[in-house]
Amino acid sequence: MSVESQPWVERYRPKTIDEVSSQQHAVNVLRRSLSSANLPHMLFYGPPGTGKTSMILALARQLFGPELMRSRVLELNASDERGIAVVRDKIKSFARAAVSAPNPDYPSPPFKIVILDEADSMTQDAQSALRRIMEQYSRITRFCLICNYVSRIIDPVTSRCSKFRFKPLDASSAEARLQYIAQAEGLRISPEVLSMLIHTSDGDMRRSITYLQSLARLVSARGNDASLMSSTTVGELAGIVPMPVITSLAQTMAVPSYDTNDEATPTAQGSAFDAVYDAVHHIVREGYSSLQVVLQLHDYIISHPMLSARQKTKCALHLGAADKALMDGGEESLQLLTLCLSLHQDVTNST
After folding, report:
1. Which of 49, 54, 93, 215 is most open to solvent, judged by the fewest CB atoms within 10 Å of its CB?
2. Residue 42 backbone dihedrals phi, psi, to 5 degrees
3. Distance (Å, rounded) from C-alpha 145 to C-alpha 43?
4. Any idea where the AAA+ ATPase domain is (predicted)?
C-alpha cells in the first residue's frame, strides 16, 4: 500500500517511543530498556486509542529495525485468534523457535517479541496455556499483552508482567498532534474545530485522527480550508447527536432543563407514554445511533444539578442495562423506548 493511500492513523503512527503522546511514564521506563537491551514481559492496559499498540511497535522497530522485525516479532489480534489452539500451535511454535541473526545497526537483543492485541478477549483456557509458555520460553521470547480491561486477564498472567497503564490523552497533547498532522497535510483548521474534534473523540487519539481525515475529505474541494467550518458540522461528522435533541428528549422524560429552576410538570401516564414514544420515534427516524443517544443521556443526567443522587443512581442502572442490551445486538428503537420510559419513572418517582 502506498503512503498516499494509507489511512492517516497508520501514516502518522509513531516511529519511535518518544513520538508517543502523553504516556510519559511508559516512555521513560521503556527508553531505558533500549540501552540495556533487557525487556520483561509487559502488559499494556487502558482505553482505546491511547497509544498501546503504537508503543510496542515503535519499541520493536527501535530494537530490531524494520527488516529484522519480520522474523523477530509476532503480532496477533486476540479478538480474532483467542482460542487455546492458537496458543498451543501458532504462539508456541514461534516462541520456541531459535532466534535469527542480529542486525548490527540496531540493539537486536537475543529474544523475540510476541504481541497479543486485545488480550482481554482471550478465553480463560487460552490464558492459562499462555502462562506456561511465558514461563517456559522466557529466555528467548518476551510477551506484550495489550488490553482495555486488565481485570479480564487472569492473575497468574498479570503477575508475570510489568504493567503499564495508558491514560486518555489530555487536550494539549491531542491538540499538538492534530496540529502537526494538519500542517503536514496542508489542512487549514480553526481552534474551534480542533477543540470540537478533541471533545468528540474523548481522549481517543485514533478516533480524532480518523475524524480529521474525514474532515479533510469533506473540504478537499475547497482547497483544504476547514477554518470556516462550524462545530455543528464536525459533530455530525463524528456522529454526535445535537444537544437540542438530547435536551428535548430529556424534557419528555420530566428531566428539567439545565437553565431553569422550575420543576418538571407531572403528566398523565398516557400522555407521558405518547410524548416519549414520539420523541424516540423522531430520533430513530432521523438515523441517530441509539448507543450514542444513551451515552449522551448518561452525561446529561449524571451531571444534572437538579436531580438527586437517588434519582441519578436509578437512572444509571437503567442506562447501563440499555448500553449492554444494545452492545449485545438488541433492537435499537425498542431498547431506547424501554430506557426512556424507565428513566421517566426514575425521575418522577423520586421517593
Report:
1. 93
2. -130, 150
3. 5
4. 38-170
Complete DSSP assignment for 285-313: HHT--HHHHHHHHHHHHHT-TTS-HHHHH
CB atoms within 10 A of CB 222: 12
CB-based contact 347:322 (threshold 8 Å): no
* The predicted structure's pLDDT at residue 200: 87
**Does residue 39 form part of some domain?**
yes
53 CB neighbour count, 10 Å cutoff: 20
- Using CA atoms, how far residue 107 sits from 6, 55, 61, 104, in Å, is 29, 17, 10, 7
Dump pLDDT digits (tens) for 291-317. 999 999 999 999 999 899 999 999 999
CA distances from 200 to 63, 227, 323, 328, 345 (A): 35, 18, 19, 24, 30
**151 and 258 together in one domain:** no
- The grid coordinates of residue 120 equal 482481554
For residue range 257-281, list pLDDT tens digits in order. Answer: 776 554 454 444 557 888 899 999 9
The arrangement of strands across the sheet holding 42-45 comes to 73-77, 112-117, 141-147, 42-45, 162-165
Using one digit for the tens of pLDDT, what is the confidence trace for 83-134? 777 787 888 888 888 888 888 888 888 999 999 999 988 888 889 989 999 9
The CA-based angle 288-293-298, given to 5 degrees, is 170
In sequence order, what DSSP letters do the residues of 110-147 get, joined into one string?
S-EEEEEETGGGS-HHHHHHHHHHHHHTTTTEEEEEEE
**Beta-carbon count within 10 A of 229 CB:** 19
**Where residue 343 falls among pLDDT bands split at 50, 70, 90?**
very high
Give the structural domain span for 196. Answer: 171-238
Same domain, 114 and 232: no
Same domain, 343 and 258: yes
Q: What pTM does this model have?
A: 0.81
Is residue 156 within 8 A of residue 131, CB to CB? The reply is yes
Distance (Å, rounded) from C-alpha 317 to C-alpha 284?
A: 23
Q: What is the pLDDT of residue 265?
A: 47
> Structural domain tally of the chain?
3
Q: What letter represents residue 99's amino acid?
A: V
